[in-house]
Amino acid sequence: MAVSSASATEPARPARVSGIDKIERRRVALAESALKTLGELGYARTSLREIANNSEFTHGVVHYYFRDKIDLISYCVRYYKTKCARRYDEVVETATSGQELVTGFLAKMTQTLVDETPMHKLWYDLRAQSMFEEQLRPDVEAIDKLLEEMIWRILGRYADLTATTPTVDAPTAYALIDGLFEQAVVGFAANPDKTPDLLTDRLLQVLPKLVAA
Q1: φ, ψ for residue 165 (rounded to 5)?
Q2: Comparing C-alpha atoms, which of 42, 128, 116 is closest to residue 81?
Q3: Helix, strand or coil for residue 45?
Q4: Which residues partner with 2 through β-bridges?
Q5: Which of 31, 78, 153, 198 has its CA 20 to 30 A from that of 207?
Q6: Containing H/E element for 40?
Q7: Alpha-carbon distance 95 to 52, whole Å?
Q8: What's the DSSP call for residue 4?
Q9: Sequence-ordered strand ranges (E) for 17-124
Q10: What are the backbone dihedrals phi and psi of residue 87, each rounded to the nearest 5 degrees, phi first?
C-alpha cells in the first residue's frame, strides 16, 4: 500500500510526559536546589521558607510540592543517598582483584567524604532525629536498608575475588563500615587534612577481617 508523502516525511512526535513525571521532575529540581541549604543548616535550623529564600523557587512553589519540612528533607536525603548507593556499582562490576576493588572503593569513599561532607552530616542528623520524629522513620529505615545492601554487594564481591566467605551478616558489615564513616564525617570538620587518610587506614584494618577462607 502506498504511503502518502505527508506521513512519510512528517517527523515523529515526541512522547508526552505524564503529569506524574512532570511533578517528579520538579520535585527532583527542588531537592537538588534544597540540598545545599540543608547541608549547611542541618535539620533543626531549616524551614521551607529558608529553603525557598536560598533557591530560585518561591515558598509557595516549595509548599505546593512538599507538604511540610519533613516531607522535603526526607525526599532530599532519599534522593541523594540513592545516588550515593549507586556510585560504587562500577567499582564492583569492573574490579578484577580484591586489591583493585578495595582501592576503588576507598578512593570513592574518601572522595565523597571530602566533597560532600554537608550532605552526609544531614543524613546522620536526620537519622538521629528519627528517634524522636516518627514521621521520619520509614524513610530512614529505607535509606539504611539501601546503604546496607550497597555495603553487602561490595563485601560479597570482595569475597568472590579473594576466594573467601563473609564472616559477618549484612547488618553487621554495614554497622561496622558506616560507623567508621560516620566518625570520619564528625572528625573531618576539625581535621580535614588527616581524616581521609585515617578513614582509609581504619577500613584497611577492618575489611580483611570481614572475610575468611
Answers
A1: -130, 140
A2: 116
A3: coil
A4: none
A5: 78
A6: helix 19-41
A7: 43
A8: -
A9: none
A10: -70, -15
CA 185/CA 181 separation, integer angstroms: 6
One-letter amino acid at 118 equals: P
183 alpha carbon, distance to own chain's centre: 17
Q: Which residue has the cell 587534612?
A: 193
* Identity of residue 150: M
Q: How does DSSP classify residue 211? A: E
Q: What is the dihedral of CA 120, 191, 46, 109, to 10 degrees?
A: -10
Crossing angle for the helix pair 195-206 and 170-190, nearest 10 degrees?
A: 160
Could you tell me which of 140, 28, 126 has the C-alpha nearest to residue 69?
Answer: 126
Separation of alpha carbons 145 and 124, rounded Å: 14
Give CA angle at 211 (94, 179), nearest 5°. Answer: 85
pLDDT in tens, 139-187: 899 999 999 999 999 999 999 999 999 999 999 999 999 999 999 999 9
